[in-house]
Structure formats: structure tokens, C-alpha cells
Amino acid sequence: MNEDLARIALRTIQKLGASYADVRYVNVESENLHVKKGVAEEIRKRSLAGIGVRAIAKGAWGFAGTTVLKRTSIADLAKKAYKVACASARAKKADVKLSPTSPRKAKYLTPFRKDPFKISLQEKLDALKTAERIAAAESKELIKTSSSFFRAHRERKLFLSSEGADIDQKIVWCGGGVSATAIRNGDVQIRSYPASFRGNFNTAGYEFLESLDLAGHASETAREAIQLLSADKCPSTTTTLLIAGDQLALQVHESCGHPTELDRALGTEADYAGTSFLTTDKLGTFRYGSPKVDISADATTPGGLGTFGYDDEGVPAKNVPLIKKGVFVNYQSSRETAAFLNLPEGSSGGMRADSPLAMPIVRMTNINLLPGDWKVEELIRDTQEGILMLTNKSWSIDDRRLNFQFGTEAAWLIKNGSKERMIKQATYTGITHQFWGSCDAVSNDDWHMHGTPTCGKGVPGQVMYVGHGVSTARFRNVRVGIA
Amino acid sequence: MSLEILSEVARKATKLAVKKGADQAEATAFTFIEDLTRFANSQIHQNVATHKNGLRVRAVLKKKIGDIMVGAIDPSSVEKAVSDAIKIAEVSPQNELFKSLPEPKKYTVLKGTYDRKTATCDPNVRADNAKRAIQIAHDKASFVRAVAGSYMTGSAAFVVANSLGTHAAAQISLAQMAVTVISEKEGSEGHGYCSAYARNMKEINVDEIAGKAADKSVRSVRPTRLEPGEYEAILAPDAVALSLSYLSNGFLATWFQDGTSFVKYNLGKQVFHEKFNLKDDGRDLETLYVSPVDGEGVPKQALTLVKDGIVDEKGICYDSYTAGKEGKKSTGHAVVPFIEAFTPGPDLINMVMPPGDTSEEEMIKETRRGVYVSRFHYVRTVNQPRMILTGLTRDGTFLIENGEITKPILNLRFTDSFLDVYKGIQMIGRDQERQALATVPPLKVSRLRFTGVSEQ
After folding, report:
1. Cβ distance of A399 and B97 shorter than 8 Å
2. Structural domains in chain B plus CATH codes
3. Which residues 155-194 on chain B approach chain A with CB closer than 8 angstroms?
4. What is the maximum alpha-carbon separation in chain B?
5. d(CA A268, nearest CA chain B) in Å
6. For residues B297 and B77, is the Cβ–Cβ distance under 8 A?
7. How far apart are CA B239 and CA B437, in angstroms?
8. How many CB atoms lie within 10 A of CB A100?
9. How far is CA B215 from its chain centroid?
10. pLDDT in tens, B204-233
């Protein structure tokens, strides 16, 4: 029924004279569970179905979206998109051009074993309660808040275009985590597993949450939070820094993912998130990092939160190298931005919208730092003096993605090739290309996918789910201990 | 979407939930219209018109709560949402911390918060305003390279009903414009920004916004490097508002109860300068997202967060759930569905800092060596109980020497406890500005710790 409405919308806007149009029917469902101090505080289900119509008329873009899925209102929706496009043409400098893509008729379904929406609420809450109880039990006196989380997302998308594309996708992802907050005399220390801000997420079924074994890690998580209360503060110095994957994922996200978005580089995000230091004159020549640094945008990585079959322009999922042996070689792009730069390979396939009511913009897929030659233990053994930082706590980067500062939940002082003791309030700062230029080693045995379900971008604001395949890496001469 | 229709949906859903066995039920029907014309590189590049309806249902069965939200309000969707909320509640564990949905309370309707012309603005009007802003900015100087920004019009409305008799409604129209101007001279960029938030598009002065953004932009080219360190600082309202949106987390019941709030460790203490006063008042028409009631239908009222620099427990804001945990009443701060959040817990979106008696010019005159900050960017909390924030300056950062702005400087990173920063307030500006979540004046502070410098 709703699929029929999408087809009506496409026919209507084509009749109106749009030179290009696409229509997305999207139905998004989510489930959020949160157990806190023994109580299931959050049992929320959300769903949103709607249709978005995007069109080029008079050489300019227009978009209209609605949740009112009635036959009588769909033609009006298409007319609105057309009218908005015509309005855009009042302030255009050049006609929109799109790089070519073959219109596909295809289906895609996230591979999963256990549908997270079909697992009983009881089973999911039991798993969360068990993990939370174990974390709380570490110390009734010091663990003031213990929490466990589960989140599942299911999205059905039908993409139709005036070029003939007809793509039906169903994307499923889920995950969760456990955290413990220890407090003593106003000192607040938090530890989280497997990542902060509600955990880790993969395109997968409930088997992914089971694989995390929250209960098996809850005790150590809480114990570390307690240990941090007695730990020394991170020293203020310049040192060798090892960064574990649950922090490095965000480092890659902020300092490589965003600056390689071509819309940012071309200035179309200047009014909000900013632009990029990776200007188009640097493409193919700029030394972004050391020869140890290889980063790709790979929408095909199994389990990645940015893994799908086709983007929201119908471009098939691709694996695009962004940084090759330290050199900046490619952008993440859309059909329009790729055409603007005459990129021979066309769009990188990164146009995504967070709902049927949003116009797609260039988004990360899975931005992966490729594994290096080291084992984590070898990396630590090889470090005479330094600091290992784990699990993101705070993050900030400037509007051109150069000056960054991150804080982590925990850190270890490394002396003579071994972890000596934990330290707290760890922060580090740097300038993106100098920092990545100082990377001298990347591990391979702890490489896995980290999911970031809350990447904000665009006006109106959109929140997208993206992934990062990373492991532990080492950086020389990094300034730490700022706060 | 009329308030009458939303009212009918909320009432019907509540009744249906009770009929299906809920001890208590709450339904919130809402609608958003967001039409936004976005421009960059001095042309329109995105232009959207969106309409979203929705319904949230909370069904309570013997302290078991089912919470569901759907993006539709047609009869079959309403019926399904209610059934699903009941089903979730049936299989949920009891939440002993839940006391009750709010009892009904009388409230006074706010008048003049909705302007039909603004809510239904034609896309051609938005496009022409974008075009005008672009033209004005380019007219400022030949080296203005690009103009970016957005012009938004729309509306938001909700009706919340519960089985205890609460039935409350709110509706606003919205108009917002933001302009970023990028200038370039000899390969060096200068950025400037200005924005306006209103409920009536008549209040959006395109010429003034574009003119101010362009002026800052052209004055910002060829910035020099200022070494990090502690400097006197003048914070423009945009910077003050963003810092307050982080600082205000300390007044949330959720933070207070979790022990992460700075207020908890400073009860009755003067943590800020005695000139620092801050309230949250959803009925204050100087704020943007005004509403007579919160998202649970509890009447909005002014809440004093900081009085003469002192914080105490009376400044903590609650929704009914967090209040119930402490045997208290809601302060009327359940999230209002104007901002789509619907995340659990209370929120502060109508903060007001009273104006002082000085102009920005006087502040500059009184600064020996300091930094003028137009905006903060990407602020994050590094340490919650000490409210250590980090972030950067953006879109116009200037060095002040001996009472005068002498040159633009590269963007700086700050990392500092904002308890300390606002302990050092020296002057408060007389001109308040309405930002999205706070209406505030500019401030002059005796010191702000800058810990890094960005590059061009």
C-alpha cells in the first residue's frame, strides 16, 4: 500500500516536469531498554513511516517529506517538492549535475541470525538486569550508578528514481553495553563496556548482543571505576600515546571521517558543522599521516554499522580508500559532489538520510583504519614510556577538523614495556595531520567494528549510524593531560 | 493540523488505554512543520518542506510502564499504538520508583505564540530572503567569497492528556535565520556568523543578520596566532548561551540524583560571581520555545537556577518521574515535544540571564589584554562535577589590547572549569539576545584558560 503511494509520488513529480526525482518510502522502528540501579527505567519503542520526495526542477533541488500516508495527500507532497525546487532556482548559480549511476532493481537484507525484535522483552531485560546487578555488586558504597543498555533498530527502505531504480532494503542493527559510576568525595569516575555512551552496535541480530557477554565483563568494568577513584591524575606532558579501539574509533570518526566528506570540503556545511582542511587542491598529494596509516570508507564491512546494500541515491555499497600509506587519495561523496569534482569513479556511495523526512547528505559509512603488523602486547612491550588510553569520555574538534581534544574514561601508564598503573582524567590534544603523521604502529589482533549510532550533521539536524573498524595504534610526541 | 484534532487524538488514546486495562495512561499528540531553505557558496543547495505527526502513549499497569511513539495519528495507528503500549506494559517489570502521572492542574494559555503566516510561509519567500542575505553579504566587500546559512519557518504543537484528567495544549510558530560569511584575502579566510530565533518571521531582520555576519567576516581575515594562556574574555551572547546549555545539565534531576551534578557538591555555596543570576521560565516570551505546560501537561513556572551566584537544591528541575523518586512534585520540566527530543528526563530550554548595565563597547574599553569570543564551537564536558568544558572559538575571534580590538586571531581551544570562569564575571551586557535555548546578554570575565590554537 505505502509502496504504491511512493510510486504515485514518483509518477506525479515526473509529470510535473522534474528533470530528476527520487522517492523513498521508509519505515524505521527502534527499541531502547535501560536498566539502572535494578530498575528497568526505560522500555521505549518508536516507529516512524513516511515518504520523502527529492526532485530537480529548473536545475535546483527541492525536497518534501511527510508522515501522512494517504493517497489524497501524496500528490500534494510531490507538488510541494516541485514547488520547493522551483523556489531554490531563484538563488542558484548553476544547474545541479549528477554523476552517472546504473539504476538498479535490487533487494538487500542485513545478514542476521536472531531478529532482535522477536527476542522477548523478558529475555533482553534479564540479560541487562544480570549485567547491571553484577556491576552494582562490586561495591554498594562506591558504585552509585550502574546501568545496562540495549538498543535495536530496523529500517525498511524502498528507493525509486526517475532513472528506473527500484531498490528495497531492510537494515537491522542492535547492541548495548554496561557501565558503572563510582563516586567518592565528589570524584566521579565512570567505566563502560564495550564502549561508552550505551555500548557498541553492529548491523547484526541479537546474537551480537549475546557475543558481547555484558555479564562476563560487568564486574571488571565496575572494579576499574572504583580503582580510578584512587588513581593519580593523568600527568601534563608530551609522551608516546597508545590508543585502544574504543577511543580510536571516535578519533578516526572526527579527524578522518568528517574532513574527507566532500560536501564539507566544498563548503556546503559551512553554516553548521564547518568546512574541512582537506581542500580539493590537496587531493592525491597531501600527506595526511605516516605511511602506517591506511583508512577506507567501506560500506561492505560485515557487521559495520554503516553497512548496507545501496545508499539513498541508489549507488551500490563501495569500499573506497581515503588515505593510502598516509596520503589523502579520496573523498566520501555523493552523485552531485562527485560530478562537481569530475571524480572518475563517481559517487563513493555515501548519501544517507536519517528518516523519510530528511534530504540525504554525504555521510560516513564504515570509516576503517586498516590493521597493521603488530599484536597489542607487542606494541605495549615495545613502548619504554607512554600512556595507553581507553574508552571515549569527551570529544571536541574545530570547524575545519584540525585542532582536537579527547578525554578517555581510563588510561594506563606504560613503563619499560608494561602497564604500570591506572591513571584518571586522561586527555590528549593535537592537530590532525601532525597527529596521524606521528603514528608509528597499528595492531591487528584487536581490530573489530565499533558502531557510532549518533553522528550529527546537517541543517535540519540529522543523526546517522556509522561504523569504524579500528584496533590499537601508537602515536609519538602527543600532548596529554590538558584538563 | 489543528489543536482540536490533536486534542481529540490524545483524549481518544487515553480513554482507549484505560478501556484496555491501563491503571493510568497518558497520550501526547503532536505535529511539526519544518520548512527550511539552506544556502552555501552563495546559492541555495538544499530546500526542504517536512510535515511530521506523531503520538506518544504511556500505559501504566500496576507500575509496569509501556512507552511507545509512532509517527502517525490516524485512527488505526492510534489504536495500534495504544494496544502496543499495553502489550509492552504487560510484559514489563514493575518500576517501584514510578509514583504517578501528574495530577491535572490549571494553567493560563499563552497568547500570541502562533503566527499563521510564519507557520505557512511560501518557499519563494524563504528563497528570496536567502537571496537577499547573500547579496547583502557580498555587497560588504569584494573579498567576501561565500555565504552560507539557512532560513527556516514552521510550527510545532502538542496536546497531552492523561487518565487523571490532565488535558493541556501548546502551539508555536517558528522562524529562524543563520548566516555564515566567508571572506578571503591573499589565501587567508575570515569567518563571520549571525543568527536570529523568533516565533514570528517579522522579527527576522535579514539585512541586519547578513550585515553583522559579513562585518565580522571581513574583519576576521588574516588572523594572527595568540599563544595559549589565561586571558580576560568577552563572550558574545551566542558563546554564553552554548556554555549555559552545558552548565545547565548540573540542574537536571537526573544528574543530581546520579551524583554527577556540580550543584550536589555546592549546595548553598556561592559558586559563581554574585552578579550571576539564571532562571528557566517557559512562560517568558523572551525565550523561544515558550509553552504554558511541559510535556506532561504540568504548568510551566519560573525556576530560579542561580541566585546571586548561589546554587541550591531548589534550582533542580524535575519531571514527574524524577520528582516521584524523591517524593517531590514535578517542577514542570518534562521535555516539551517542540524540540523532538522525547528523551526521558527533565530539560531546561527556556533559560534567561537578566541583562546588566554595560554595552559591549564599554566591556572592550575596560579590557587591557583579552579575547573577544563571538561563538563557541563543539563544546563538551570533560569533568561533570567541576564543569570543566572544552571547545573552540569560531566565526570571529579578536584580540583586545588596551581597550580596543586590535586584530583577528586564530581560533583558540579553551579547557576550563566554568564554575571558575563565571566566578570571574566582571561585567554583564545590557543587550540580551534570544538564542535557541537561552536568552542572555554578553559577559566579560576576568579569565578564560585557552589551551590550544587551531590552524587556518
Report:
1. no
2. 3-218 (3.30.2290.10), 223-456 (no CATH)
3. 178-180, 182
4. 73
5. 5
6. no
7. 12
8. 11
9. 26
10. 999 999 999 999 999 999 999 999 999 999
